[in-house]
Specification:
Length: 174
């Protein structure tokens, strides 16, 4: 009856193989039906299936398509995954502007790895103009969630005092 949630749930059932024989093609079929109604979770799962390429041939274009559909509905994991795809440039041409765009969308929803990755991008200044204030901002967001690497990098920034006033007490704190 074109119930996208039921279609999605059938996709999960076949994907996980609980109480039925695992069948990735049937999972993809039901996820695709749900995705045709723009069901967010179905788009995300299809993106992950095509990105990983574990059960089907890896298809990064399909993965990006489905992640983009989910990201447009504010799915933070899809936004983060798109940020990774565009930052690494492993499967597509590296595009730091797109990476920052998607990381920022996820970071604004408290995705700590997106916050940390933005901190690294601005801290290193490898792909963009180095901006310690932005690095501190994003590291601090991730540090509020007790992300150890962000805490460590904040400590380094204040210990080194490059582009910021050296503050040993803050360095020790972080």
């Amino acid at each position: 009856q074109n119930d996208s949630e039921a279609q999605y749930n059938l996709g999960v059932t076949y994907y996980e193989g609980k109480d039925v024989t695992k069948d990735i093609q049937k999972a993809i079929h039901y996820f695709s039906l749900a995705a045709s109604s723009n069901y967010l979770k179905a788009h995300f799962n299809l993106g992950a299936i095509y990105e990983k390429g574990e059960f089907v041939k890896k298809d990064i274009k399909k993965a990006i398509y489905h992640y983009t559909q989910a990201a447009s509905q504010d799915d933070i994991d899809a936004q983060y995954n798109l940020g990774l795809i565009y930052e690494t440039g492993e499967y597509v041409k590296q595009d730091i502007k797109k990476a920052i765009y998607y990381y920022s969308k996820a970071a604004n929803q408290n995705h700590l790895e997106a916050q940390y990755n933005l901190g690294v991008i601005y801290h290193e200044g490898k792909y963009v103009t180095r901006d310690i204030n932005k690095a501190i901002h994003y590291y601090f967001q991730a540090a509020k969630q007790n992300y150890n690497n962000a805490l460590y990098n904040l400590g380094i920034i204040f210990y080194e005092g490059i582009h910021v006033t050296r503050d040993i007490e803050k360095a020790i704190h972080f």
